[in-house]
Amino acid sequence: MIIRIMEEGQFDVPEDALSRLNELDAKLTQGVESGDEVAFADGLEMLLTEVRMGKRLPDDYLGSSDLVLPPVDSTLEEVRALLGDEGLVPG
User: Could you say which residues of the chain have pLDDT below 50?
Assistant: First the structure.
């Protein structure tokens, strides 16, 4: 699965990482919904760190992404606007 972190690049993440990504997404979503800036920031950092464990693709890779995540410096309000019914990581 190809995941793009905006302003950073694309990563090839194994399909078996999806359950862990969903766990981290749930923590992030909980922080956003409660308005807890610390929980939100920690959740976003953990989610992006997990994605970064995948294989970084070259900057000139032109394939599409299965998932696009916000950059690490996103605000709570910016991420709130991106959240769908299933969070950032549909599962």
Answer: none
